[in-house]
Amino acid sequence: MRGRGHRAGRVARKRRQKQESVVAAVSLCHQLQYVRLMKFLHQRGFTSTLLQPALFTDTGRGLQALRSIKPGQLLISLPESCLLTTSTVLDSYLGPYIKCWKPRLSPLLALCVFLVCERHRGEASDWFPYIDVLPTAYTCPAYFTDDIVAVLPAGLQRQALEQREAVREIHSSNQNFFRSLQPVLSRPVDEVLTYEALRWAWCSVNTRTVFMSHPSNNFLSGQDDYALAPFLDLLNHRPDVQVKASFNDLTRCYEIRSVFGTLRYQQAFINYDSHDNQRLMLEYGFVASCNPNSVVYVETDLLGDVLRGDRSLDQKIKFLRENNFLHNLTVSGDGPSWRLMTALRLMSLPQTL
Fold first, then answer.
1. What residues does 243 pair with on adjacent strands?
2. What number is the average pLDDT over the span 126-132?
3. The pLDDT of residue 22
4. What is the mean pLDDT of residues 259-267?
5. Number of other residues whose CB lies within 10 A of the CB of residue 43
6. CA 221 to chain centre
7. Is pLDDT above 60 for 200?
8. Which of 53, 22, 48 is nearest to 233 (CA)?
9. Which of 78, 80, 280, 317 has its CB surrounded by the most CB atoms within 10 Å?
C-alpha cells in the first residue's frame, strides 16, 4: 500500500508539473470584441472548435488549443468569404474610385485606404468586428521615434529610416487620390486619411496578411498576393514550429495544418518563415527568443577598417558591390556565411600595384 501511495504521489506531481509547464492564459472569448468577431465569422461560414482567443503571459494575444491537436491535423479552415482582399475593396463603395484612377494604385495602397475608411465608419462598417480587434498601434520601425532609431545597429537603423520614409512617401504622393474620396467620407479627407491613419493601415497589412495569389486585373498595378485573415491572424510566430498553409481551391478556404501538433491548453503557433531577428523586427515588429535563425550582420565599413592600408581596397569593394556581394554579410552560430567568406577571401587577396 505504501508503495502504491508513493507511486500515485509521483504521478500526481508529474501531472501538476505538466500542467504548470503550460504558459498561463486567460480566455478572451467572453469579451465583447471577440464575441462580435466570432459572430461576424460564423455568419460567413467559419466555426472553430479547436482554438480560442486567449491572452498569454509571454506573447500577449494568441490562440489556445481547446484540445490536443494531432500531427497533420487541420488547425484552421477560414472560408474565402472571411478574407479581406483587393476583391473586397474593388467590390465596395471604393471600387468605382479606384477603378477609374490613373495611374493605377498598388494592391497594398488599395487595402490600406479601405482599412482607414472602414475604421472611420466605425460600427457602420461591415468589417467593424474585425477592425475593432486589430492593434491600435504597432512596434514596427514605421512607429519608431528618433530616439529608438538612434540606438539601433547601423544597418538596421538605415532600414528603419527607409521604412518610415516609404510610408511617408506613400501618404504624400497620393494626396490627389485621397481627395477624390471626399464624397464617401463624412469628415474632411485631411482628417481621415492622415499620415498616422495610413501608417496604422500599412502596418496592419504588412504584419498580418497571408500569402494568397489573385488573378490579375486592369485596375491595380503590381503583384497582388495579400489577404487579411480574421481570427487566423491571431496565431503567433515561433521559429521551431512547422505548419502547412495555403488557400485550398477545392474547399475555397485558407487552411493551416499543423505538422507536429499542439498539446491541450497550449498556445498554437505558426511559422512566418526562417527569418532572423532583424528581419522579424523590420517586417513584424518583434524578435523571437532562442531563434535558431539569429545572425549578426557585418557592415561593409567594418571590413574596410580591418583591411585599411590595402591600396586596392576601393577597387575590391567596388567589384563586390557591382556583383551584389555586399548585402546580407552575416555570422551565425555556424560561423560566417558563404557570402561573407567570399567577400573576405576576395578582399584578402594580395594587393595590386
1. 258
2. 98
3. 57
4. 94
5. 11
6. 22
7. yes
8. 53
9. 78
Task: Let me know how long the chain is.
Answer: 353
Q: Do the beta carbons of residue 245 and residue 270 sit within 8 Å? A: yes
Backbone angles phi, psi at 257, to 5 degrees: -115, 130
Measuring CA to CA, which residue among 228, 257, 235 is closest to residue 244? 257
* Whole-angstrom distance, CA of residue 195 vs CA of residue 217: 28
Cα gap 223→215, rounded to integer Å: 9
Beta pairing partners, 74: 257
SS (H, E, C) the chain: CHHHHHHHHHHHHHHHHHHHHCCCEEECCCCHHHHHHHHHHHHCCCCCCCEEEEEECCCEEEEEECCCECCCCEEEEEEHHHCECHHHHHCCCCHHHHHCCCCCECHHHHHHHHHHHHHHHHHHCCCHHHHCCCCCCCCCHHHCCHHHHHCCCHHHHHHHHHHHHHHHHHHHHCHHHHHHCHHHCCCCHHHHCCHHHHHHHHHHHHHHEEECCCCCCCCECCCCCEEECCCHHHCEECCCCCEEEEEECCCCEEEEEECCCECCCCEEEECCCCCCHHHHHHHHCCCCCCCCCCCEECCHHHHHHHCCCCCCHHHHHHHHHHCCCCCCCEEECCEECHHHHHHHHHHCCCCCC
CA distance 61 to 58: 9
Report how far residue 113's alpha carbon sits from residue 227's, in angstroms, rounded to the nearest whole number: 15
For 152-174, what is each residue's pLDDT tens digit?
Answer: 988 889 999 999 999 999 999 99
60 forms beta bridges with 56
